[in-house]
Specification:
With about 230 residues, the chain is mainly alpha-helical. The chain contains 8 helices and 3 strands; from the N terminus they run H-E-E-E-H-H-H-H-H-H-H.
Length: about 230
């Protein structure tokens, strides 16, 4: 069913020669669709005829059955094995991440992305402000040096002076953005407080309110005391 969408999306209005681009379907499974004794981690599927000859060379399916992967942490050598182990055990590695992952640059980036994705709304907002400040300052410095070179200012002092100017401008913009973020954060907290009090007054439990707002019970209780 899902494979029909990438096929349909390639259709064009008017005349069309039905020349499709290849489609690769990847399915990551946390269950076995075949008996455990026959289960394979990877199953590569292609359309073939009764003579086992490839019938269509633009549609391929790959199924990955995570329960069929049984290697332990000390057996992880290849990058593929590390990915499979990580995906299979990700829920159990929130607090204690194996050293085999923390020492790998690729997985360090993955863990950072996962950590950002798990931030609460107000924490994510703080992160975005911090990131924006860094990008603005970095861009200002880059622009300053590029401007200096473009204008033929070979003198290093002139380039540094221009960079300092851009830096101050970027810092000011970052401060303004931070102020706006703080105001938005306060509005969010006020809204959460109002919702917490309203829903509890209607009979909803503190736990239910915390789940609804995706905040902690302690935060809800603090709102009710305020």
């Amino acid at each position: 069913f899902y494979l029909t969408f990438p096929i349909q999306s390639q259709a064009t209005k008017g005349e069309w020669n039905f020349n499709l681009k290849p489609i690769y379907y990847l399915s990551l499974l946390d269950f076995l669709y075949e008996p455990a004794k026959d289960a394979k981690v990877f199953r590569d599927i292609a359309l073939k005829d009764q003579f086992n000859a490839l019938f269509y060379d633009k549609l391929f399916l790959k199924y990955i059955q995570l329960p069929a992967f049984t290697k332990q942490e000390h057996e992880l050598v290849e990058r593929t094995d590390k990915w499979l182990y990580y995906l299979k055990n990700i829920e159990n590695m929130q607090e204690n991440i194996p050293q085999v992952f923390t020492s790998d640059k690729v997985f360090n980036k993955v863990l950072s992305v996962a950590e950002i994705a798990a931030l609460k709304p107000n924490e994510y907002q703080d992160y975005q402000v911090s990131r924006m400040q860094y990008l603005e300052i970095h861009a200002a410095l880059e622009t300053a040096f590029e401007d200096g070179i473009a204008e033929g200012k070979k003198d290093l002092k002139q380039v540094i002076k221009l960079a300092e100017k851009r830096f101050k401008e970027a810092k000011q913009e970052a401060e303004e953005a931070k102020q706006e973020a703080e105001e938005a954060k306060q509005k969010l907290l006020n809204k959460q407080k109002a919702i917490s009090k309203k829903q509890v007054s209607k009979g909803m439990s503190v736990t239910e309110v915390a789940d609804m707002l995706e905040i902690t019970i302690t935060e809800v209780e603090a709102y009710l005391r305020d």
